Amino acid sequence: MLFSLYIKNFALIQELTVEFGTGLTIITGETGAGKSILIGALNTVLGERASSDLVRSGASKAVIEAILRDVRSSKIDALLNSSEIEPAPELILRRELSATGQSRCFINDTPCTVSLLKQIGELLIDLHGQHDHQLLLRTETHETLLDDFAGSLPEITTYRHTRLLLRNSQHEIERLNKEVTEIRNKKELLDFQLNELGALDLKNGEEESAETEITLLENAETLFTLSTALSDLLYDSEHSAYSALSTAIHTLEKLSGIDKRFDIHLEETRTAKSIVDELARFSRSYSADIDFNPVRLETLRERQLQLQRICKKYGRSIPELIELRDELDTRIALEINLEDEIARIESEITRLKAELSKNAESVSVKRQKGARRLEQVIQEQLANLGIPKAAFIVSITHEEQGNGEISIEGRTYVALANGYDRIEFLISTNQGEKPKPLVKVASGGEISRIMLALKSALAESAELPILIFDEIDTGISGRIADAVGKSLKSLSRLHQIIAITHLPQIAAMADLHLSVEKSMQEERTVTEVTVLSHECRLQAIASLISGNKISPSSLNLAAELVAGAEMV
Q1: Separation CA 452–CA 436 (nearest Å)
Q2: Segments making up each domain of the chain, as ranges
Q3: Is 386 in a helix, a strand, or coil?
Q4: C-alpha 229 chain-centroid distance
């Protein structure tokens, strides 16, 4: 339950604490006294958007704090734990609005986001304001109300999951089809490029290798002449380097035998002789292996020209052309792989559509059963609320589509976000009239009663522990007001109910009666909230009956209303 609401420097409220009770809490007060400010403060602490204009003039910030008891649930605990907030027996929500436009939020004195505050608030309090009457005229609201009553969320969750998988598969197949189409559109060019590059049998390093071989073949005669001359100079001529070194070694051996200082030079000369011998052998071998091959040279020159042309044509180097060839080969092969993948996904889409159809039918069956029960309950509630001949119909229709994703009994339908049902509440408030959409039939007073009837119908299945009604009595009076009061009283046995009203019949039903008044303090307007004693309560109810001039008869009538309420 909402135990207390602390408000400081918010609009006309300087500072006050309002304590609430179980059962039915009624709030009354003259128009403009500030009843809507209470609701606004409560909305603010529940995470709704708030303006810095709401900060009381002259104050640096406004503070609203709500203390709730016995409201813990697995959903709330999960939200708190995910934000590293320790759950506690009391849930304390606090919001601070700065005059500069900044906002700070706290849960159990731990800073949190406005989003978390709003999520928690939505699990705790159902605040039905005057504008919510208009929401009932919007058909999308009807689906939510029916699902709440029918308890069809598990089936809808399964449906949504399947629909998401189907959408993902459809997007994937669109992407693959686009890729296949792109490959097919370019296939002739891709085939030509692959054949052209494949026929060239390109190899990494080929350009450098060809350039080296061409240089050797072009200079074969020069290489032969020079290598032969080198061989003669080193070894084959009469006065070769090899012969000279051999003579030098012989002389050094004699010198070394006399003076050991020549030993090191002897070894160096012997090393030189070995080097000359090895170089001479290489020169002879090299000259013998020289290839005088003009045919090979011409072939290489043609290949070199061919490589230059292909590189210029594609604007790529040989390594890049090899990479392109492999990429083309992969892309052309990919078409076959993509077609196989498309066939697999198409099969998966067929399976998912069948599963989605089954899920949609499960949702619809649950809704159909809930709709019949809701119709009966609403008609009973409306009878109690002064519309005894009402015919309330939950219309469930389906939109056929030629290529619809949902197929049931040979027909295909549009797959909507939460199933394939289109739901609309129809009503006839007069016997013999055909039920029509709410927007075309119901008056303001009837809409108020229909909303109350729906809240009463949903009360047993709703997890929300607290219901707040801001002027549920719009457009009603007399015996209807009495019926509405009794309905609120009955509803308060299941939930904590807080209601703002101008009607004495509803005010008389209160378990706790709060009065909102506006006064002047230090030349400033201040809104205050008072818990009314029994006598003061009779005075407040009497004023709702006769206005400011309370008469003995209005006091007597107020007493009768209160006494009658105690019998409900």
Answers
A1: 19
A2: 1-136+463-568
A3: coil
A4: 85
* Cα–Cα distance, 247 to 241 (Å, whole number): 10
DSSP symbol at 419? B
Q: Can you say whether residue 277 is alpha, beta or left, with left for phi > 0 and alpha for psi between -120 and 50 degrees? A: alpha
**pLDDT averaged over every residue in the chain:** 86
CB distance 328 to 193 below 8 Å: yes
- Look at the block and give the residue holding tokens 């686009």: 178
The four Cα atoms 434, 437, 443, 447 give a dihedral, to 10 degrees, of 120
Tokens of 393: 């119909």
Which of residues 99 and 359 earns the better pLDDT score? Answer: 359
Q: Please tell me the distance from the alpha carbon of residue 331 to that of residue 183, in angstroms, as a whole number.
A: 7
Asked whether 449 and 484 are in contact (CB, 8 A), the reply is yes
Q: Look at residue 305 and give its three-state secondary structure.
A: helix
The backbone region for 11, taken as left when phi is positive above 0, alpha when psi lies in -120 to 50, beta otherwise, is: left
Q: Are 23 and 35 in contact (CB under 8 A)?
A: no
Say whether pLDDT at 395 is over 70. Answer: yes
Q: Alpha-carbon distance 72 to 22, whole Å?
A: 16
Q: How is domain 1-136+463-568 classified at the CATH fold level?
A: Rossmann fold (3.40.50)
Q: How many other CB atoms sit within 10 Å of the CB of residue 271?
A: 11
Longest dimension (CA), the chain: 157
Token digits of residue 236: 């084959």
In 3D space, the residue among 237, 238, 265, 239 whose CA is nearest the CA of residue 251 turns out to be 265
Q: Calculate the alpha carbon distances from 19 to 7, 514, 531, 535 in Å.
A: 12, 9, 9, 19
Give the angle 486-39-80 at the CA atoms, nearest 5°. 100
CA distance 423 to 441: 17
- The residue type at 473: D
Record the tokens describing residue 344, joined without a space: 């697999």
- What confidence tens digit (pLDDT) does each residue in 304-326 have? 888 888 888 888 888 888 888 88
Share in percent of the chain as helix, strand, coil (round to 5)? 60, 20, 25
* Local confidence band at 523 (pLDDT 50, 70, 90 cut-offs): confident
Confidence at residue 482, expressed as pLDDT on a 0 to 100 scale: 86
CB-based contacts of 241: which residues, under 8 Å, 6+ apart? 233, 234, 235, 276
Q: Is 390 exposed, middle or buried (0-12, 13-18, 19+ CB in 10 A)?
A: buried
Q: What is the 3-state secondary structure (H, E, C) of 437-496?
A: EHHHHCCHHHHHHHHHHHHHHHHCCCCCCEEEEECCCCCCCHHHHHHHHHHHHHHCCCCE
Q: How far apart are CA 389 and CA 370, in angstroms?
A: 21
**pLDDT band per the 50, 70, 90 thresholds, residue 170:** very high
List, as one string, the DSSP characters of 390-409.
-EEEEEEE--B-TT-SEEET
Phi, psi angles (nearest 5°) of residue 55: -70, 130
Tokens of 506: 């509803």
pLDDT given for residue 442 in this prediction:
59
Is the pTM higher than 0.85? no
Unique residue bearing structure tokens 């976000």: 417
**Looking up tokens 């045919």, which residue turns up?**
295
